[in-house]
Amino acid sequence: MIWNWSFAWSIVPQLLRGLLVTFEATILGSIVAYILGLVFAVIRRSRIPVLSQLVWLFVEFVRSTPLLVQLYFLFFILPDIIGVTLSPLVTGVLGLGVHYATYTSEVYRAGIDAVPRGQWEAATALSLPRSRVWTSVVLPQAIPRVLPALGNYAISMLKETPLLLSISVLELVGQAQAAGSEAFRYVEPFTIAGVFFFILSYPASVLVRRLERRVQRTH
Amino acid sequence: MFANFGHFLSVLSDGLRPTVELTIGGIVLATIMSFVAGLANGARSVVVRVIVRIYVEGWRGTSELVQLLWIYFSLPLLLGLQIVPLWAGIIVLGLNHGAYGAEIVRGAVGSVAPEQVEGAVALNFTPRQRMVRVVLPQAVVEMIPSFNTLFIQLLKATSIVSLITVPELTYQVKQVLVPNFGGQKTLIFVMVLVMYLLLSIVITVLMRWAERAAARRIGRRPQRRRPLPDMDTLPGNPIRDLNVPGGA
């Protein structure tokens, strides 16, 4: 028998436990990516000598190299640098968050660039302090229109969390692999894992598309 | 610090070959799938369109690593044949990124000005001539920057094939170098990351060249704009238009 229903049902609870970890990693990773990406974008836009260029270099470097290698880097080298061993999940969240922050920083940048020049000039004319210009004028206009793109990245991240199994985080696919190697049956666990991803990401992407249309209408 | 540099370089060079094979094989398959599925979107037959949507949404909706493990572990059981890990990698990379590429092709074809198609109709072009001689030459210029991003994503994704024991760059680092030269981990990681960076620069240089060539063919100069690093935010998305100076 290629597909064994009773085995499939028996591993569902284990996979759901893994799904919970996948959720945790995605939500925490997204939060890191959204905050850090904004920081990158604002630093680059502020044209602070040296710092802006360093951030640009970092963003380009991280964006052009594989997440999996970055995860290994954090897993093997970070403990030596900071002197504490972080749990695999925290390491994974950091890796996902920083990697995706380089993507979201581009999204924010596009949003900031789309704020009309006149808005900046008006803020200068009103002699608003720099921090007020960002928090009260530019970002409130820039962020709403990039929300769909940010949502898309959360969905992409959800689909990349399985890479954390390589640093021994037991998320959905890690649990599927564990269940599979115990019984030496892989068809059921990996198929169910795939179905779970689809059930989550497809409706999410439909929602983002709807949000996209709404944003397009209002701008 | 640099004691074993030469040795590391030779071990990593061994891994370079499978990485390049996976990248090129993946790019070829992904490009074919992108055009087949992207153009089939405009087919008259409902059956064809449904099949294309199932392919695109199915491959985009699930995780690439799950697809890889599924093909590697389950396909042999279902078909009764063992699949060479390298080929499993190329197939998954190609089919996965092809599903994203199909949306790029669809978006670019849809973005060609309707007057162009009307003009071709007025000149009595057959549907095939309209596509090959009028729509595609213009759409290709539009899609190249997005394909550049897609191919770099594909290059980065080749690293996951290390998890099914293909001895590419990441595998050499994780299974060969780090266990034996733990004291020089930092150097090893910097070297492999720089190699990936160089490979992605090669892709970008080639694609820029292709973009210029394609634009020249239709008598246009390529505009310098950078697409976002994700396929979900490509043509048909408001974000891309935000990149155009003075747009939105």
What does this structure look like?
The complex is a heterodimer of chains A (219) and B (248). In chain A, 83% of the residues lie in helices and 0% in strands. Chain A has 219 residues and is mainly alpha-helical. In chain A, α1 packs antiparallel against α7 and α2 packs across α4. By secondary structure, chain B is mainly alpha-helical. Chain B has nine helices and no strands. In chain B, α1 runs antiparallel to α7, α1 packs parallel to α8 and α4 packs across α6. The radius of gyration of chain B is 21 Å and the shape is flat. The N and C termini of chain B lie far apart (51 Å). Classes of the chains: A mainly alpha (219), B mainly alpha (248). At the A-B interface, α3, α4, α6, α7 and α8 of A face α2, α3, α6, α7 and α8 of B.
> How many β-strand stretches of chain B?
0
Total DSSP helices of chain B: 9
Judged by helices, strands and strand pairing, the structural class of chain B is mainly alpha
Helix fraction of chain B, binned, reads: over 70%
Could you list the spans of chain B in which at least 5 consecutive residues all have pLDDT below 50? 228-248
Q: How would you spell out the order of helices and strands of chain A?
A: HHHHHHHH
Mean pLDDT score of chain B, rounded?
Answer: 88
Mean pLDDT of chain A: 94
Low-confidence stretches of chain A: none
Radius of gyration of chain A: 21 Å
